């Protein structure tokens, strides 16, 4: 009796150690939805970048509703908003080519990159942390003709994708287990068909989640540099003041008559 | 009564001295204690100063036949800057020059030929004259490319209080 109790205790210990090792060996992707990659400004290491991802909650077996409920309870207080920033700026500058070259050099310095160029319109991706700084700097380069900024909140979609991905992976594991047990060809074919669909769905969700993380980490900024001559309607001609000294004020006068 | 007497000679000399002082005061150039970055140009009664980056300060005094209050001149200048020249006024306030004359200042932003400039204009008004007081308008303009303008603005604003003949 004493011997069997000892064996049981030893078996339980081995099982616990094995379980712990299995949990520790899971990769970042496999651990989803408990772990979400967040950009540095959200407390993580950047979308697809290095650094420790932000741990939100650890998923476990159970119904999707239970998992969602646990997720919401445990994650809600810890999650910062995941915002996708996009913006556009139209600038009237003296020398558009020079301004564009300066802008692209700045983007490179910020670890960003050019995404698209059409004429004098440049669409670039820059780290989200630089978004406001970029607007601030660019607006000092010339007259602002047009300015737009948008922040889209993708937190809910990102978390929802994580939950769905977790459940889909668990379903795939169950189907794989079923496949091993299946004897009939008909059953094997049915399970394989289900597996194929599920794998496609998992890949689609993983892709979308990576896309969202990238959109959060890198903002999209579109800048159009317009030359003075072709920028906007001409200002109306200045009417001379009745007071001569007033006519001698102004930037033009200082630049030309100084 | 003749100017030949000793008392009259003294009075005449005093009067001549007073006139001379007035004349010198009228001809004296404007002065302003600007930051060391500015070089004051020695070329006339107006005060002109420039930095190596071509930031410019220009102080002048105009005889104005039309007598008006400072409020009127400030409103006239404001209207010209905004409505006629299309500048954006980002700040405005009151100032007193180095001789105690009340004034107003306007800090503007303007784009000229595609370049972004900052422009500070201050206007002071007062009456001056020995026998007949004439209305005077004193102005200070500070113009620079926006980056230099922002950097130098606090010191130039402070220097408005040192403007004098």
Which properties best describe this structure?
heterodimer, A: about 260 residues, alpha+beta, five-stranded mixed beta sheet, two-stranded antiparallel ribbon, 8 helices, 7 strands, B: about 160 residues, Protein Transport Mog1p, Chain A, 2 domains, seven-stranded antiparallel beta sheet, 3 helices, about 30% helix, about 35% strand, elongated
Notes on the protein architecture:
The complex is a heterodimer of chains A (258) and B (165). Helix content of chain A is 50%, strand content 19%. Chain A has 8 helices and 7 strands, in the order H-E-E-H-E-H-E-E-H-E-H-H-E-H-H. In chain A, the strands form 2 sheets. Chain A has a 5-stranded mixed beta sheet. Chain A has a two-stranded antiparallel sheet with strand order 1-2. Chain A is rod-shaped, with a radius of gyration of 29 Å. Chain B has 165 residues and is α+β, with helices and mostly antiparallel strands. The mean pLDDT of chain B is 88. The radius of gyration of chain B is 19 Å and the shape is elongated. In chain B, a hairpin with a 5-residue loop joins strand 6 (115-128) and strand 7 (134-145). The interface between A and B is medium-sized, with 27 and 32 residues.
Give a topology summary.
The complex is a heterodimer of chains A (258) and B (165).
Chain A: H1 2-25, E1 35-36, E2 54-55, H2 64-75, E3 83-93, H3 96-109, E4 113-118, E5 121-127, H4 131-138, E6 143-153, H5 155-181, H6 185-217, E7 218-227, H7 244-247, H8 251-257
Parallel strand pairs in A: 3-7
Antiparallel strand pairs in A: 1-2, 3-6, 4-5, 5-7
Helix pairs in contact in A: 2-5, 5-6
Chain B: H1 6-27, E1 39-41, E2 47-50, E3 56-63, H2 70-84, E4 88-96, E5 102-112, E6 115-128, E7 134-145, H3 146-159
């Amino acid at each position: 009796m004493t011997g069997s109790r000892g064996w049981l205790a030893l078996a339980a210990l081995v099982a616990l150690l094995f379980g712990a090792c299995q949990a520790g060996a899971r990769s970042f992707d496999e651990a989803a939805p408990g772990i979400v990659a967040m950009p540095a400004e959200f407390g993580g290491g950047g979308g697809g970048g290095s650094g420790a991802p932000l741990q939100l909650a650890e998923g476990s077996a159970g119904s999707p509703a239970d998992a969602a409920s646990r997720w919401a309870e445990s994650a809600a207080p810890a999650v910062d908003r995941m915002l996708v920033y996009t913006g556009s700026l139209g600038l009237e500058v003296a020398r558009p080519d020079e301004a564009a070259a300066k802008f692209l050099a700045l983007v490179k310095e910020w670890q960003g990159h050019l995404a698209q160029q059409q004429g004098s319109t440049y669409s670039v991706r820059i780290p989200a942390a630089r978004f406001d700084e970029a607007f601030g700097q660019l607006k000092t380069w010339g007259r602002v003709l047009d300015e737009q900024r948008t922040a889209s909140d993708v937190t809910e979609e990102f978390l929802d994708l994580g939950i769905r991905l977790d459940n889909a992976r668990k379903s795939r594991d169950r189907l794989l287990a079923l496949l091993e047990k299946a004897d009939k060809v008909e059953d094997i074919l049915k399970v394989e068909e289900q597996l194929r669909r599920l794998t496609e769905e998992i890949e689609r969700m993983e892709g979308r989640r990576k896309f969202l993380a990238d959109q959060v980490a890198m903002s999209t900024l579109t800048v159009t540099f317009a030359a003075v001559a072709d920028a906007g309607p001409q200002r109306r001609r200045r009417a001379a003041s009745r007071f001569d000294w007033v006519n001698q004020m102004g930037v033009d006068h200082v630049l030309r008559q100084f | 009564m003749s100017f030949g007497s000793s008392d009259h000679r003294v009075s005449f000399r005093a009067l001549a001295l007073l006139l001379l002082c007035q004349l010198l005061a009228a001809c004296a150039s404007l002065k302003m204690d600007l930051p060391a970055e500015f070089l004051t140009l020695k070329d006339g009664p107006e005060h002109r100063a420039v930095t190596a980056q071509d930031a410019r300060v220009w102080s002048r005094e105009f005889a104005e036949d039309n007598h008006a209050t400072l409020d009127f001149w400030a409103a006239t200048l404001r209207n010209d800057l905004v409505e006629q020249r299309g500048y954006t006024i980002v700040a405005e306030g009151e100032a007193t020059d180095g001789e105690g004359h009340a004034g107003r200042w306007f800090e503007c932003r303007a784009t000229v030929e595609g370049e972004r400039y900052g422009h500070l204009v201050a206007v002071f008004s007062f009456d001056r004259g020995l026998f007949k007081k004439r209305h005077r308008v004193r102005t200070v303009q500070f113009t620079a490319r926006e980056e230099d303008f922002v950097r130098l603005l606090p010191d130039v604003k402070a220097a408005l209080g040192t403007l004098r003949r």
